[in-house]
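hiii so um. not sure if this is the right channel but i have a protein structure encoded as tokens and i wanna go backwards to a sequence. like what aa goes where. can anyone help
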């Protein structure tokens, strides 16, 4: 079996390995980063995890260094299976029926694989970590994993809407498995006793390389069922957030009360600069009655009613999601398409490569300027 050396050193080694991947896992001064890893990995499992690659492999391809330490292939395969089943690493099944294992990012990754098994303690730890370290690090890189697209009821015929910004087009172009799961963020707030009333079964993942399938954390659905879920989410005032690619692997239906990203983005100045969106909201002052419904509808606190009784939009916080458009009883709000359209990466792999390249540049710059590209909280 794996020899257990200094425990803290072993977990720190895993933290640094995770942080070297495209999706950050930075060190936390509070130590909560290691606390989370200890909830997911035994020291022996850490030794395995740091040998895993981003592209999943079968146990036999990973076994060589562990054979030298006295493991049998059966023991090693069982250890990988245990880690996969508790959601600490990526576990998928190939067309050949074999199991494949790879390193998992934090989010989307091992946090998402805790559906239906979250404890109050784990949820609190991860909330603390994403607030202290994870969201700031992701914003520093300048490209987030998620983007926003306008809800269907907010789209005007005045603009050409690209396929990657239209939810129906995204869904109808899927040629693989569509899988529906509960929202891990809403499960997290509920287990902590601070949950909201928004629908839970709203998280859509796309493709067979999806550990949630093998962890049985949801169900396969059709394209029509996916559209029904997304339209229901829109009717409930949720923001549609696909992964930041033309062919997303995940579509989240987010709210500012439970979503780990949105509720933390609001703590920074001008978060709209960091979230890719091709739209923003304008108000028709002649039609606005100052009812305030838009203020209630907005998940980013971007709206307010001024002293003249007219709604105003803080474009530094407006993500162009369009949720406030159908909420306005006077039709006094509309989406405006930005002059320069942001075209997302083609797919998730290209997105990770883009993030990784930016991360490499930033880390090189910080060798001489430790505050280069750092984003600061204002709340």
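sure thing!! here u go:
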């Amino acid at each position: 079996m794996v020899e257990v050396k200094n425990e803290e050193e072993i977990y720190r080694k895993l933290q640094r390995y995770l942080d070297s991947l495209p999706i950050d896992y930075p060190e936390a001064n509070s130590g909560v980063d290691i606390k989370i890893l200890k909830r997911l990995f035994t020291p022996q499992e850490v030794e395995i995890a740091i040998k895993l690659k981003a592209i999943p492999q079968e146990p036999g391809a990973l076994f060589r260094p562990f054979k030298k330490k006295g493991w049998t292939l059966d023991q090693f395969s069982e250890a990988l299976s245990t880690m996969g089943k508790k959601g600490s690493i990526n576990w998928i099944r190939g067309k050949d029926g074999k199991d494949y294992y790879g390193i998992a990012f934090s989010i989307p990754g091992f946090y998402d694989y805790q559906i239906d098994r979250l404890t109050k303690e784990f949820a609190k730890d991860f909330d603390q970590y994403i607030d202290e370290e994870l969201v700031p690090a992701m914003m520093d890189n300048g490209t987030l994993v998620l983007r926003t697209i306008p809800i269907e009821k907010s789209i005007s015929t005045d603009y050409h809407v690209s396929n990657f910004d239209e939810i129906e087009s995204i869904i109808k172009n899927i040629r693989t498995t569509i899988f529906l799961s509960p929202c891990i963020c809403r499960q997290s707030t509920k287990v902590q006793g601070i949950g909201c009333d928004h629908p839970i079964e709203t998280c859509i993942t796309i493709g067979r390389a999806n550990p949630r399938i093998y962890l049985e954390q949801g169900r396969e659905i059709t394209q029509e069922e996916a559209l029904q879920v997304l339209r229901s989410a829109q009717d409930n005032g949720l923001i549609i957030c696909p992964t930041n690619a033309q062919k997303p692997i995940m579509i989240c239906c987010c709210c500012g009360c439970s979503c780990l990203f949105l509720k933390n983005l609001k703590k920074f100045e001008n978060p709209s600069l960091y979230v890719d969106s091709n739209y923003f909201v304008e108000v028709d002052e002649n039609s606005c009655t100052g009812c305030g419904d838009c203020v209630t509808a907005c998940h980013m606190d971007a709206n307010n009613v001024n002293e003249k009784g007219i709604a105003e939009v803080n474009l530094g916080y407006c993500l162009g999601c369009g949720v406030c458009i159908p909420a306005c009883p006077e039709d006094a709000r509309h989406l405006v398409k930005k002059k320069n359209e942001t075209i997302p990466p083609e797919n998730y792999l290209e997105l990770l490569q883009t993030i990784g390249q930016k991360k490499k540049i930033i880390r090189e710059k910080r060798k001489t300027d430790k505050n280069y590209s750092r984003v600061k909280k204002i709340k």
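oh and Residues 146 and 359 are 17 Å apart (CA to CA).
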